[in-house]
Specification:
By secondary structure, this protein is α+β, with helices and mostly antiparallel strands. The chain has one domain: Trna Endonuclease, Chain: A, domain 1 (3-Layer(aba) Sandwich). Helices cover 23% and strands 30% of the residues. It has a six-stranded mixed sheet, with helices on both faces. A three-stranded antiparallel sheet has the order 3-2-6, with no helix packed on it. Strand 7, helix 5 and strand 8 form a beta-alpha-beta unit.
C-alpha cells in the first residue's frame, strides 16, 4: 500500500497544532526536554508550518562606507519548524526542531536531502517570517537545529535503515492518524545537530 497525499496532508495539518506537536516530541524524549517550560509547554513552543526564513546578506556599500544588509526570503524544505520560546520573557531560545514528514513517492535520498538543504540554508544568518500572533517575538536564527523524521507504516524499510545509519531520529505514524492515537517510536541513535560531525544534544 502506498502513501496517499491525503495521509501526508493529515499529518501536516495535525502537527501544525502546538498540542499535537508536543505529543509528537513526547515520542523522542531528548527533544521533549528542549522545551523551556514543561509547566507551560504550549506557551513554550511556536509551530510554523511550511516555514520561510529571511536570510541576511551583507554587501559593501557602493559608496565604500560601511556595509548594506539585505534580507532574502527562502522556503525551508521541511514541513514544520518548532521554535522554543521562553514563556516568561517571550523571547525565542537558541534551539529549533524541524519536522520532516515522508512525502508520497519520496525516497531516502530525497528525504535526507531535504535535511541537508536545511542545514546549508540555515548556516547563514537568518530570522523567521513569523505567524501574525508571534510577530512581536525576537526570532533571530538558532544556535543549534535538530531534525525529526515522521514516517508512515507503509514507508519503505530502507528509510528507517538509512536514517538509523545517518544517526537521525524518526517516529512512525499511522496513515489513518486519529487525534487519540499516538504514533509508535522507532528508537534510533542521538540526532545530528546543525554541525554534521556533532551528533550530541547539549543541555
Amino acid at each position: 500500500m502506498t502513501i496517499q497525499q491525503a495521509d501526508y496532508e493529515e499529518l501536516l495539518a495535525t502537527y501544525s497544532q502546538t498540542r499535537e506537536a508536543i505529543a509528537l516530541l513526547r515520542l523522542y524524549r531528548p527533544y521533549l526536554e528542549l522545551i523551556p517550560s514543561m509547566r507551560r509547554p504550549e506557551d513554550s513552543l511556536i509551530t510554523i508550518p511550511l516555514p520561510i526564513a529571511k536570510l541576511r546578506h551583507t554587501h559593501p556599500s557602493p559608496s565604500g562606507h560601511g556595509n548594506i544588509t539585505k534580507a532574502e526570503a527562502a522556503p525551508v524544505p521541511c514541513e514544520i519548524a518548532l521554535l522554543m520560546c521562553d514563556p516568561e520573557w517571550k523571547v525565542k531560545t537558541g534551539r529549533e526542531i524541524f519536522i520532516f514528514i515522508h512525502r508520497p513517492e519520496e525516497d531516502f535520498s530525497e528525504l535526507l536531502g531535504r535535511w541537508r538543504q536545511t542545514q546549508v540554508l540555515l548556516s547563514k544568518e537568518y530570522e523567521w517570517l513569523m505567524p501574525l500572533k508571534y510577530q512581536h517575538i525576537l526570532n533571530d536564527g538558532a544556535e543549534k537545529i535538530y531534525p525529526l523524521f515522521v514516517l508512515f507504516e507503509q514507508s519503505p524499510e530502507r528509510l528507517r535503515r538509512g536514517l538509523k545509519g545517518a544517526h537521525l531520529p524518526c517516529v512512525v505514524a499511522s496513515a489513518t492518524h486519529q487525534d487519540e492515537q499516538e504514533p509508535s517510536t522507532v528508537p534510533l541513535e542521538e540526532p545530528s545537530s546543525s554541525t554534521v560531525e556533532d551528533s550530541s544534544i547539549e543541555y
